[in-house]
Batch of 3 targets.
Target 1
Amino acid sequence: MSLLKNVGTIGGLTAVSRIFGFVRDILIARVLGATAMGDAWQLAFMLPNLFRRLFAEGAFASAFVPLFNRRMKQDGDLDEAQRFATNVLSVLLPILIVFGGLAMLAMQWIITFFAPEGLEDNPGNLEVAILLGRITFPYLLFMSLATLIAAVLNSLSRFAAAAAAPVLLNVCLIGALTYGLTLDGDLAARRTTAQAMSWALSLSGLLQVVWLAYFMRRAGFSLKLGSPRLTSGVRELGVLMVPAIFGAGIYQISRFVDLFFLSTLPVGSYTYLQMADRWNQLPLGIIGIALGTAILPALSRYLGRDEDAEAARLQSNAIELAMLLTLPCAVALFFTGTAFVQVFMLGQNFTPEDALTTGMVVSALVLGLPAYVLVKVLTPNFFARKDTRTPVITAGISLIITVSLNLVLVPRIGVTGLAIAGAVGAWCNIALLGGILHFRGFYRMDARLVSRIARIALAATLMGAALYFVMPMIEAWFVGTVAQKAMGLGVIFATSAASYGAATLVLGVLDKSTVQRLLRRQG
């Protein structure tokens, strides 16, 4: 299947999940708001997700996929790959159970350390926050198992089931929030709603495991739990995971650093950052994660067959597609972030001041959006070569830059400073990753790609100029009636589509040859 079709499959289903995620976050903003209980829920939600991204999605998937692909036979015989995956599961599950149990026992100290200023003003709020953390932590175990199954399916080029699985998370949380809407809306109601959401989160993890296991069996692949054995394959996976864990760990350490700085800010800062990140995650998930997921198996196969030219072609296509889709999203959100927050999240417990603050954070976050996507596109080139150490080094350098900027910016401009520092750090990471690939001769951008990226950037800039001119004339619509809000969104979409579309045609960004190149089959 072609890169464009693979990305379309993953990105399309991810978009469905993100739409459900928007509905979820709109309800969270209105039901919990930027309150102490809203921050307590965000903290309880973030903790298992931080460890999930550390151990499961980042380190595990990047090390597992190349090893699994190497064991797959060309004639469809999956016996060796199945034995490898089964041995991995038998070792992974006990580790997850022990780690999760210890974290739940230590939850009181964890929550107390990261609690934002003001949460402890009401002792009942802190107790509820600790309970939320304990209820949500089993989500880590379920999602780690889901990641293993998803890696198997992706290696078999069955992308759809894994891309659709997060919909179950949002459906469960929306159900809990719908129950919360029936309550009175006071502090007790917010506490009850937060607890219902925590149970729904862990339930969604279990449902995703069942969902993915069903599609794995349909693909003719099954996993059976056996006694833990450190086979040569499991040991090789562990060796590859260690630097990947440090690499992902550096990124997650930066997230823990964010939590630390957030704990020094007033109540509501957790909610501002999470609500703003929802807008940033939409293009990042649809484009960046989809591209990274789609190209890793193909890169692994090309490099395994010493087809370096084909690997370079795939990398160039991925970069071009990423910039074609991401740059206009970043520019548009920079100018319209506040408007979108006002339209979809303003109301009930989410005040106009909350919307304005969140909008500023959106504009700061998207400064790094193209870099966040390019990280997903470039790191598979290292992982496919079983080099999980280099991204550790580049991520470590970018972390130092990010933390240094946090120390300067957060005391002065608050939560917006966190977003700006993260964006600068991401661009530094991209500069390092690209430079190393070029220096080692693994990948070098040709003049054609540089020219196309420059034209894409110019087209996005022209679109930004159009939005800069239009937005002041319609800004009052976004806090008006439903009809005015709809008209305002229509103007944004029409202005963006017309200006970017016209610019891409005039500048020759998108033509028949580009589409044919992106539709070419991979692997």
Target 2
Amino acid sequence: MFRIPANTTISIQPLDKEGRAVQLFRSWLVAMPGEELSCIGCHEPPTEPPVTSKTAASGKAPQAIKPYRPRVEGFAFDTEIQPVLDAYCVRCHDGSDIKKPDFKNKALLDTKKVEEHYSNSYHAFHKYFRRPGPESNGIMGNPYEYHASTSEGVQLLEKGHHGVKLDADSWRRLYTWIDLNVPFYGSWTSVYAIDEKKESWTTNIAAHAASLRAKYANVESNWEYTPAEPYPVTATKEKSEEPLAPVAVSAAGWPFTAEAARQMQKQAGGQQKRVVDLGNGVSVTLVRVPAGEFVMGSDDETALEQPRHRVKIAKAFWISESEINNAAFFTFKPDHNASVFDQQWKDHVRLGYYANYVEQPAVRMSWNDAGAFCAWLGKKAGLKVLLPTEAQWEWACRAGSDSAMSFGPVGSDFSPYANLADKSIERLAVSGVNPVFNKGLVGNKVHDFVPRVAEFDDKQFLVTGTRQYQPNAWGLYDMHGNVAEWTRSDYARYPYVAGKSDSLSPSEKKAVRGGSFFDRPYRATSSYRLGYVPWQGVFNVGFRVVVEE
């Protein structure tokens, strides 16, 4: 319950406690003086009566909106975001170190307008933040679909990035920028200022519209105003947590070779595979992973993967050889909507690239839903079915290897083993009303902006199925890439402690492992961790299951 200015177009975004949009409003509303508006009428059947029970909000008088700035104005990259980069980023990202791929041509201090009339600084920065694109699809979006927590740039800063710790106002600006679809310009007038003919035309229209609003609607605000000078940022003196010095730690008999892993699996005795039948030709195949011990974590990533520590897997367990696909998940929840992967283009007639095909790994289920699937499957099969703990997941992924990837170093050719962000993902550079890949747009800073490792090609630019690549030594597919995977464990600090780290608390963030088709290898190692709240469905996160004996 809140008051809005009359005769003014309003778009609503519900925010979480950090000020990040949970849902994006796909339209707008306008209220006349004295009018009361409600969501009821659009989002319910026309024959359904209004809800009569009182809500918490209706027990108070309508609240006043606290303006973001003292006046109505456009939110522009140069005035809001560039000052954040100037305060925190340009001391390293000045474009001088061309030997490092992440630094090459990424000078965050270069504000000169270049290709498509954006700055080099904008081009270098915007690609690390998810948003719907110029128009996206035309259906009601899922809550949390474009939540700021799904952006690589936000994740990197939250985990700690070379000591950078943003102040509260800078975080607020960054979240607002993401939720406004990462704009560069703050108004139509400033967009068309690049063209002398259109500038005068747009300026005249804006001035005429403003005069009509003042005369007939009593609205004096200049909706086209964008500040001429940037809003300054005072950098905090606090530093983010940085990786610790490596510690000496070992585990008996670890690491071991792929051949040793296979022998270890055989020597454990009994069958090595089992199939759980879900009916109608749908099944889940499980692989037996032996007990053992290993060193969990990494000294080559962030403080969240430290300290490296020895973990003992006391009992063998069964784990699904691939991620749970849509066929299996739809058996449990037929109305689950995996939706689409966005096309990042405008004027299109397709919603995007469909994620609901039965052979595709299921995505966009929350941790709660993944756990509910496990409970359903366990009851159906008479087994103890759970999500894997982080320790089980990493032990199964590594299959004896102490390298970043189960098949080698992080810089090795992953194309035979994993679906990651590689050359193929350039096919997201599309154009046309029915968008198709436009090879001429490859390298274009506006149309082709998904970070990738272009020297390798795994032949897939999206998720098209499971079991497409070579399995690890224990016969597990897609532990790296394809879709990231929920684990049972809390996204808590190491060392991992069995039971304690797997609290099943409904309020704690849950650890996600393995990276996805949308991630470069550094985000898909055996040890790299991310965390999401348990009620959040994520576009590139699925799961696999374990059966404990």
Target 3
Amino acid sequence: MRVSKMLIPTLREVPAEADAISHQLLLRSGMVRKVAAGVYTLLPLGNKVVKKIENIVREEMNKAGGVELQLPIIQPAELWQESGRWDVYGPEMYRLKDRHGRDFCLGPTHEELITDLFRQEVKSYRQLPLLLYQVHNKYRDERRPRFGLLRGREFIMKDLYSFDKDEDGLEESYHKMYDAYNNIFSRCSLDFRAVEADSGAIGGDVSHEFMVIADTGEDEITFCSGCDYAANIDKTPCHSSGEDAAVEEERPLEKKETPEARTVQDVASYLGVDAAKVIKSLFYNADGKLVVVLVRGDRLVNEIKVKNYLECSMLEPADPDEMRNKYGLPMGFAGPVHLREKADVTILADTEIDNLTNAVAGANKNGYHFVNVNLGRDFQIDNYGDFRFAQVGDVCPCCGAPLQVQHGIEVGHIFKLGTKYSEAMEATIIDEKGKEAPVIMGCYGIGVTRTMAAAVEQCHDQDGIIWPSAISPFEVVIMAVNQRDEPQVNCATEIYQQLVAAGIDVLYDDRRERPGVKFKDADLIGYPARVVIGKKAITEGLIEVKWRSTGEMSFQEKGNIATYLKDALASMM
């Protein structure tokens, strides 16, 4: 392929709307173009990267026993109503009506459709196990689409669904996919971790996320310094050891004026106490019921843990105006003391609250806090629980060693669904005993376009992208220093043909541009190897090769160039 025959509109300036590194570089390198918020066109180079990732995914899915199909994007509401998700999935679902007024959605995921297909076509346990997958577009109306392909409204995803007769079969399918995912991201040459995760809206009891390690990642993962434990920070359990419990006598409760001190830091500074002595009170609307969660002032509430504990469909912060007008509770000054006199509220406390003596809490009056607050004497709770995020230095739940925290980008997620969908939609099989039983399911997703963006977040420098060779749009770019010099052009053409014959994915930059322009574009786009035909190629038969990842440059014999590049690229796979 020649650059003169392609569409590669590179940009020198950073687009104003792009914040994430991957968003900036994918736009600048001419791989994507924005159509609307969260919607992008894949230009030829970007499409080529995506196809290479898809090929790796397909090879590993097929190797694991997967069978590819394609489900429709438009899905009838009736199936989602059967599963119970039509009314609870949320505003991220694109909903539409046909000309007859029937409800449909653009598929954000395909559990309902694949379950419906299964119940129509599969009847016996003898047809199992079954692993069905697709590589397809998904649609989610993100509230804040941002970071280019990392959080879009339209994206390409691989989703596989497993069907087994029992839990042992699900365990086997799950491990096949776990191993296949490790192979996929290893073949993409990405630094990643598989971590325990929360199942979220998809459901199920067990799930793992595959996280590409990147300082710019939105997600945080915890990992142990002493063992192999790793988990999404949303999932990481926190334990209160009791070692921090202060040995001090309870002092009388006092109300103190704290004007304009609404944040924990302001209150702690004003009263001259440590933030860990302040009780932070976070109010939520949980399926229409008022709930308050108490954590130490130096901790953050983990809303996923709270939602899972309450088993509620919707959990959102309480409206400040409603709290003030309906209950007389000013946000920033609300707390658990005398709270039940003002509102019918469920009071939950993180386990660490039990260790606090003579703490500080809001007095439920604008501009005031209580000091010397003590659980049992001054307020009661309904239940303790693990309601906070883990932090660096917390103890590992497996071995007790200190936890570390890294940032990452989720590129894959696997779930044990069990019978969540098969029971709701009556997808059954006849088992060995001749009895009808719900099929056991799992689902396994990979964000293909997100993987491309995550690779850029991890693999770049100040000059541009540094593609791993397995997913680079081209493995080698070749150019003549002077495209007007006939001997150089002839030599470049000859070597280009040699590389093509050797099976190397090569692009010939045949533009009549200055060498500096071509070099900058090559670095920006990030081809693993740059081959330059200059005067030495003509006079001495020496070809310049520069490797993008290391900056290493050498001269290779013209007759050996194809073998050299093929061997070097193979070693990078």
